[in-house]
Amino acid sequence: MSEPEVVVVADPAAATTLAASDIADALRRAVDTRGRADWATTGGSTPVGIYRALSVPPMRDTVPWPAVHVWWGDDRYVPRDHPLSNVKPLDEVLRVPLPTANLHPFPVDWAIAQMRGATWAAAWAADDLRSAGLPTAEGWPVLDLILLGIGGDGHLLSVFPGSAAFDSPDWALAVPAPTHIEPHVERVTLNPAIVGAARQVIVVVSGGGKAPILAEIFGAECDPHRWPAQLARRVGATWIIDEAAAANLPG
Ligand code: 6PG
Predict the structure, then answer these.
(1) Which residues on adjacent β-strands are paired with residue 237?
(2) What percentage of the chain has pLDDT greater than the value 90?
(3) Residue nearest to atom 8 of ligand 1 (CA)
(4) Cα(66) to centroid of ligand 1, in Å?
(5) What is the pairing mode between strands 172-175 and 37-41?
(6) Helix (H, G, I), strand (E, B) or coil at 193
(7) What percent of the chain is helix, strand and coil (3-state, nearest 5)?
(8) Cβ 246 under 6 angstroms from ligand 1
(9) What is the mean pLDDT of the chain?
(10) Is pTM, for the whole model, over 0.90?
(11) DSSP 8-state code for residue 200
């Protein structure tokens, strides 16, 4: 297993500030190089402070937002304005000149309104991603940046330990509501292989509650099916971890 860059910072606020700065740099670099930036953002509590930091100077004004496309690594199968939606925090907090057409959420609202189901929403999202015409690596789309949080069970995206997603050729798929971890809500997620194809991955982990699982993720045993977060233990990934979460890290 190759190793990522690991940056330990004092507290969640420092992690948020550094992550926002690294995201801004990655987006600027992508637009400078390729004329656009494709960024898959995360759910959970991780991104809210990051969106807030990106929404004020200097980053609000130095990122070429009209050339940025935002995707979601995963979402919950709830309406966009539902408290558990992974889109709602971005809608409410990220105040930057991002064209609406550049937002590519899973079409959960449509799917619910038309009673189509999560599988349809995942397939539609995969088609939307395919139609973006991104370069591919081993058949997977190459995003410029993926922002990730890590669950207490070692999951990333909505890919839980032992997930069937590891055996799927689909770029996106539906995930039954997990019973072992909150929220117990059906999900839609990008395929975990997309983490390995991305040009850059930023993982943000804060709080002592994540210290035990981080020690396992960074332990000697390599088993992404057991610890999906190990897919982000790779060159090209930066793990931004606060001291509380890093407390049990080896070495
Ligand atoms: C989700 C996320 C999930 C999240 C982790 C960490 O939909 O819940 O995409 O992968 O990033 O569970 O969540 P916190 O940042 O809230 O700890």
Answers:
(1) 201
(2) 98
(3) 44
(4) 27
(5) unpaired
(6) helix
(7) 35, 20, 45
(8) no
(9) 97
(10) yes
(11) E
Contacts of 5 (CB under 8 A, 6+ apart): 237, 238, 239
Q: Hey, which of 147, 156, 175 would you mutate to test ligand 1's pocket, going by the most ligand atoms within 8 Å of its Cβ?
A: 156
Name the residue of 157, 201, 213, 240 to mutate for ligand 1: max ligand atoms within 8 A of Cβ.
157
Angle between helices 46-54 and 12-34 (to 10 degrees): 60
For 214-224, what is each residue's pLDDT tens digit? 999 999 999 99
Nearest to 207 by CA among 11, 5, 6, 69: 11
Token match 């297993």: residue? 1
Tell whether ligand 1 has an atom less than 6 A from the beta carbon of residue 192: no
Predicted confidence (pLDDT) at residue 1 exceeds the cutoff of 60 = no
- Give the residue, out of 42, 84, 180, 194, with the most ligand 1 atoms within 8 A of its beta carbon, to mutate for a pocket test: 42
Q: What contacts 56, CB < 8 A, 6 or more positions away? A: none
| Residue 190 to residue 145: CA distance in whole angstroms | 14
**Torsion (CA) 24, 25, 27, 31 in degrees, nearest 10:** 130
**Element housing 246 (H / E):** none
The 10s digit of each residue's pLDDT in 8-38 is: 999 999 999 999 999 999 999 999 999 999 9
Interval between CA 151 and ligand 1 midpoint (Å): 6
Report H helices in 35-70.
46-54, 59-62
Could you tell me the two tokens for 23? 């995201």
Q: What is each CA distance from 57 to 20, 39, 52, 63, in whole angstroms? A: 12, 20, 10, 10
Single-letter amino acid code for the residue at 155: H
